[in-house]
Amino acid sequence: MSSTAARGPVDPSRIPRHAGPTTRRDPTPAADRDLTPAAPRNGGDLVVESLVNLGADRVFGVPGQHALGLFDALRRSALAYVGLRVENNAGFAADGYARAAGTVAPLLLSTGPGALTALPALQESAAASVPVLAVSSQIPSAGLGRRRRGYLHELVDQQASFRDVVKSVHLVGAASQIPSALAAAWESALTPPYGPVWVEIPQDVLLAATEVPRVTGLRVRPRVPSARPELLAEAAALLVAAERPVILAGGGVIRAGASAELLRLAELLDAPVACTFGAKGAFPWDHPLSLQSWLEDRHTTELLDDADVLLVVGSGLGELSSNYHTLAPRGRIIQIEADAGKLEAGHPAFGIHADARGALAVLGDSVSPRSPGRGAEVARTLRERVGARIAEQGLGLEQRVLAALRAALPDEAPAFFDMTILGYWAWSAWDARRPGAMHSAQGAGGLGYAYPAALGAAAADPTRPVLAVSGDGGAMYSIAELATARQENLDVTWLIVDDGGYGILREYMTDTFGAATGTELARPDFVRLAEAFGVPATLSSPDRLERDVAAALAAPGPRVVVLPALLRMFAPTHALRTNG
Questions:
Q1: Which fold has domain 229-386?
Q2: What's the predicted TM-score (pTM) here?
């Protein structure tokens, strides 16, 4: 049974009946008493009170039968609620909010199908180290693990479905456990490496009246890993002695707020800097030392290989960051990483378990400045070689479309890209202009990320517009959230590039097998469909794209721009690369 079909009125027989808090004789004269009955508090109230105390001001989710006690408690709280239409999209929205706000995003889910539908979104948050706190209901305590009473939505071991995805799991068995469980989950989510966490509370615990006092003073202090001094001293000595140092900055630089420290160290070392796809904006795109983000280019891979010391900061050197595992550095690797499990996971390295900001600051204080010039020349030559290779491929339309978007988008406005050809271009070619100004689903690679994540970012900061970019295939995953955008009046412009199918898969299959299967899609008239939701929409063209997107971004509320275009990817180069 789907999560949508299963939502309905609560069966009164399943709601625990309690006499409420024990009453005590009040010695105050009756005439002086406030005889207005106090609203009963329950486990749901403890959840929302705990979230408020921990710093939350907004939650995302989709209600469901077992979670109604939690959602009802929202009425009695200061939390703003953004309701999505599909649980997975609610998870993506929470992810976008957490990235934009720089804090934990609570996600409220119901049992079984509702919870499981959010798994792909939580996988993206895990892969991209995004702090999402998912709070899910569970069947009543009496039925847990038994599968004898036939509860709706029942799973024998629901939390087992999430253990392989989230950073930590926290189970609640009684109302008094709720504040501590949420505090532990919040701390886990915000302790580097960041990540999603899971809290599970049975329906009867959420509904039962409680005598637990109102939650106040609930605070947590996330633990930030600090590098050992002797490791940083050795790393500084290696960098000072290097003749060809290069820096590869990963998403951990942005999460740590370490862009200024990265810039300072690069300039002291005269070291060129490349940014992974998750680190867009960590280093100025047009800086003389910038190698930009052309990690799928063999020229960039060869330059990283040739460094006698390669400083990798905030990256685990995964598939994309290592150009599909073709990266093979011949020099020494220094790896600074907040996730101890990623140290030396792909390459032997001088590993330092540390948050990027503190480690880079100490290195900046420890190295001596060298004469500038060589690093900028290396970076300029690399950019020219990459530009020449792209120019040979006849991809003027793609470059023109990306340039039009960049020109239309204000520097302070974030962009969210789906897994679509234009998004793949953006990984390498988009100038984010500030840390955290570009996001995509490249962590786990699921479709449908861009639009709901952009809605979450817009909810985090309503003072600036947000751009979302999807293909027509990915757009269909998120089309229901046009209703959310309209209901919440969020300033998100959604560009849908309509090429009639799964464009990137069409290219992959055609290149590999000579023909594509299952990639061609019937699709709606996106302009009329958006307008049916009450969202103004524009049919654009490459020549009008900059003007149309700029106008949509400048207008209040949600807007849709549809671009019919068949875009192509630049040629992959990891297969062409040779060592030596």
A1: Rossmann fold (3.40.50)
A2: 0.90
